[in-house]
Structure formats: C-alpha cells, structure tokens
Specification:
The protein has 172 residues and is an alpha/beta fold. Helices cover 19% and strands 35% of the residues. It contains four helices and 13 strands. The chain has a six-stranded mixed beta sheet, covered by helices on one side. Strands 7-8-9-10-13 form a five-stranded mixed beta sheet, with no helix packed on it. A two-stranded antiparallel ribbon has the order 11-12. Strand 2 and strand 3 form a beta hairpin. It is globular, with a radius of gyration of 15 Å.
C-alpha cells in the first residue's frame, strides 16, 4: 500500500512524497526545492530512496542534486530528457514498467508541455503523477510540444480508469 503526502512549495508547486507502508521505501515526485522535503522526511523518520521527475523544468528538478547528495537516492526520469534532468540515474521510456519496492508503475509519454514529459501511473492503486500535463481546470502550457501532442497526451490520461486519482504538479 502506498501513502501519499503533498507538500505545497514555491507559489503553486506540489511535491509528492510516496511511501510504501510495509517496506518504508520512499520516493519524491518533482522536488523543486530541497529543504521542505528534508523537513518532511526528518519529521516522519524517513529517508529518500528515489526521485521521480516528470520533466526537466527547474520547478520540478531544482532539489534533485542536493537531495541525491544527502540521501544517495536514485533519480528516475525520461530517456528523452536524460541530458536535461540533473543527476538522472534511471532512464525510462513509454510503457516501461518499474518497481519501487513492491509497487509497480508504468511510464506514460505525455509530450506537449515539454517533449520529454512523462507521467508515472501506479496501476494497482490507480494513482497518476502527471506533472504539468493536466491540472484540475486545465493543462500545462506548451513550451516545446504541439497542440496535437498535448491533445494526444490528455487523451491517454482520459483513457485510464475513471477511479484514477490524479496528482498534478501545480494548481492555478
């Protein structure tokens, strides 16, 4: 079972802490900053094992190197963003599965906001960490991709089960 905690940072970013309840393996999604993550981990007796990055923008990877230096964690991101995600160790591609402890997730390519944008879909729990692909009332701006790519990416998310809980990178 996964426990999810949301940490609001900067003006409108969200960092998510994912903890497996049995193994206590812990991951952080899109750490824009370091201090708030360290405080959360310290206050909850956790250490960081993984960082999951949805894309390369600094408000999603800004804490990568400092967290990696402090905890020795592995950084996971898109193969397409391998040269733009600081400290990346594990480079995944569309439809590739990966395990964090006993929790399996699938990578979903969602270009539009950026070319290398991905989402992390934890199938057993129906949890989707979608970065800046989609928000409650809209979608991320197009910096590198096309309208067609963003539309296709949103349709991929729409095709997930109706019970999917979506964790977005911002809320405007």
């Amino acid at each position: 079972m996964l426990n999810i905690s949301q940490i609001p940072v900067l003006e409108d970013n969200y960092i998510y802490i994912i903890t497996e309840s049995t193994s206590r393996i812990t991951a952080c999604v899109d750490p824009s900053v370091c201090d708030e993550v360290v405080n959360f981990l310290d206050n909850n007796g956790l250490k960081l094992d993984f960082i999951l990055n949805t894309h390369h923008h600094s408000d999603h990877v800004g804490g990568n190197l400092e967290l990696k230096d402090k905890y020795g964690c592995k950084i996971i991101g898109s193969l397409m963003d391998k040269s733009r995600i600081p400290g990346i160790d594990i480079k995944l591609k569309d439809n590739e599965n990966y395990k964090i402890g006993d929790s399996l997730f699938k990578v979903i390519d969602t270009p539009g906001h950026t070319i290398g944008h991905i989402c992390f879909y934890f199938m057993d729990q129906n949890f989707l960490f979608c970065g800046d692909t989609i928000f409650s009332l809209g979608c991320g701006r197009l910096f590198e991709g096309s309208y067609e790519q963003m539309t296709e990416s949103i349709l991929k998310i729409r095709s997930l089960p109706d019970c999917t809980k979506i964790f977005c990178g911002h809320e405007y």
